[in-house]
Amino acid sequence: MAEKKDPNAERVNIMYAPVNLDYRFTASDHTSRFLESIRNGQFIGSQVSEGAPVYVPPRPVCPETGLPAERLVELPDTGKVHWYTIVHIPIPDNPIKPPFVVANILLDGADITFLHLISGCDNDDIDIGMRVKAVWKPEAERTHSPANIHFFAPIDKADALAEELAKEA
Amino acid sequence: MRDVAIVNYKQTPATRDSLATNELQMLQSVIQGVIKESGVELSDMDFVCSGSCDYLAGAAFAFVEAIEAVGPFPPIKESHVEMDGAWALYEAVLKIRTGEADSALIYGFGKSSPGDLRSVLSLQLDPYYLAPLWLDTISAAALQAAQCLDKGVLSEADMAAVVSRSRANAKSVAGTQLSGDYSIEELLAEPTFVSPLRMHDCAPITDGASVMIIATPEKARQWCDTPVVISGLDNRIESSMPTLRDLTVSRSTETAGKAAGVGSKPVEFAELHAPFSHQEILLQKALGLDASVDINPSGGALAANTMMAAGLDRIGHAAKMIQSGRYTRGVAHATSGSCLQHNLVAVLEAVS
Q1: CA-CA to B336 of 20 to 30 Å: which in A78, A126, B310, B324?
Q2: How are the residues of chain B apportioned to helix, strand and coil, as percentages rounded to the nearest 5?
Q3: Residues of chain A whose C-beta is under 8 A from some C-beta in B?
């Protein structure tokens, strides 16, 4: 028999239903090789064939053609700033204290940018098109992680105009 | 409204664990396969629609990573449903019927191996009352089967007969997961898994991907000799609360079947998406299919059950069987949700 409703009972406004599921993630062949290579301080990218666009981190499939991008190529750890933003708002639990610079970086020889940090100079001196180089953690501290790169540091002034970069992208 | 025809369909071999081969790679191979086989280009597709479930990968927006398999740059017209690829087909059919597209590529994929599928799928239940109880898929289906047995709707021997036929039919399907000759007596001698279900009453866990090309009949005729027309298509959903439904019948399938015109002409065969053996019997009844109708000549979901593709697979296998000349008219069905909550029925016919 149903219990009589207590008129003084507190109304339930919030319920907690935590969801925890365990997954056994398997990195793909390309991702495994990429993580292995950045542990050794080396970038690699992938392409469908010689002369085709180079993707870094390496993707298994070329998004322009849908064909397998099986050719792996080594890339230098230098490139240029495609665009950047100076972050002033702290991110909870993030050890990096603002203001810091997040930039979209195009590695030399690559056809796609990726995000990383810029440091080693005044934030006001950062410019679009500026040449940068990866500053790696000491070899003994490296793991299978993009965090092996502390940040990218400027090595030269801008060698391209923002307008030209916009066309390239 | 315009008719829609199936041009081609292909699936990856069904495996229990595709290991380091990810969703994108499975799709890439099967999409290139169907494109080459049909003598078309990806750029010939006016619309692309996919079905998958991010919970399988355990990552938000996991479906976005798969899109590269269709070469989406420069930008294409594309959509996604967080459902079986059969519902992606439904969306694509509407696009063609309303004249927004003349052709479409549909895909469904699922790599279930990384997680505990029974628990992962419990998240498809309503989030307030059922999901917090972690009612898993197999237990929910077992409750349904128990009700069917109690009411005398079917017997354990009937369920074993479904499994026996499924595995025998699957012998002729390349790349399927479970096939072989098993007698009803042999199957009934097995212990129960989640009572009253035995292990073989439950569909296997499968990693895979499936792709289909559809088009207007005119275009389909240019691309293949034997297009298969989708002459009826309907889908209906029931309450998310299993206790509010009579689980011993499938009303939504019955309604969808009538709306799709299943009984308007004789049905020669049916591909039914039943992840549990007892559900195949409920579906057969709901669609009014008598003993003369061949059920699941592909083996059905009990032979291979790629999540988010197994429904599309039923329609794909049915189309292929009509293309082979074995049949001229059949029904294909897809299900979604717990205990046959949501059902889609398609009627497929050879072009005369």
Answers
A1: B324
A2: 40, 20, 40
A3: 15, 17, 19, 21-29, 32, 59-68
